[in-house]
Design a protein that fits this description.
Largest sheet: 7 strands, parallel
CATH superfamily of the domain at 8-167 and 198-227 and 270-286: NAD(P)-binding Rossmann-like Domain
CATH topology of the domain at 8-167 and 198-227 and 270-286: Rossmann fold
Structural class: alpha/beta
Strand content: 15-25%
Distance between the termini: 40 Å
Order of helices and strands: EHEEHEHHEHEEHHEEEHEEHEEHH
Strand order of the largest sheet: 3-2-1-4-5-6-11
Oligomer: single chain
CATH architecture of the domain at 8-167 and 198-227 and 270-286: 3-Layer(aba) Sandwich
Radius of gyration: 20 Å
Length: about 325
Amino acid sequence: MEITKNTRIFVAGCGGMLGEAFYEKFAPIAQVNATDIDVNESWLSYADVRDYNSIGKVIERFNPHVIVNLAAMTDMETCEREQECAWLTNGLGTENLALIASKLNSIFVYISTAGIFDGKQDSYCDFDKPNPLSVYAKSKYHGEIFTAQHLRKYYVVRAGWMMGGGPAKDKKFINKVYKQIAAGATQLNVVNDKAGTPTYTRDFVAGLQKLLKSDLYGVYNQVCGGSATRYDVAVEFVRLLGLEKEVEIKEVPSDFFRTEYFAPRPASEKLVNMKLTARGLNVMREWRICLGEYSRVFGRNLNQVRGLEVASGSFVERSHK
């Protein structure tokens, strides 16, 4: 489809790290109705994907060409503890939006996750069969299945280890590492037995734009190039901050955090963008390049938080060798 100033895009769950990147990308080029249950920005309004009747009225009034579902309960431990809420948000919420999309003949975009695989393979292409282990993964995979069964005009797009949003909105791994450093930690314990593919929010939404323009509906893996362990990502992040001599990163097995992170996680969440590449739609850059770009905001913020007495170029962009 052609995206113009007259294109109406309804977005659910737009208040998080991916939603921020989506709004920044699409608001200048289309009419975006951005909603969330957490109205944390002036450009957001309230809508709850779990309430079919209420959100249905909101969407029908807007009459969108595209409905994008970014709404999700993503904390894996919370999903295990609050399973009904996880299913209502990730499962029923997706059903609700898909049914509304079908009723209005809107294109539906659903964001899924690399976590739907069981990790028994080294990596997974778009055609490999999922086998989710956790409540979070099962509820997200349900959204994939329902979307594919009930719609023709849809994109299911799988992300990997998401990074984006900066200190304010990033609830994932990078910001967890950053918070420890900002608090003065000189040693970080990071698991070395979990592998995946980082996924930069800005590249991801650029990919969504290209997919929407293509009219090539279906299921797609969309992650950054390359792969890494959590340890690899932490080492690179600390290096980019210029703190490799100040912060020691200790490799630990996942069992080290078994009390805090008890939800089952696959050993490998590495995805391959086979379909995007084959169709000439892959815009995702290598993860180290994206992390280098993303890390700049943390470097600036860290200097303010810690009051580091360093030269004005204390945070420098370093090329990976």
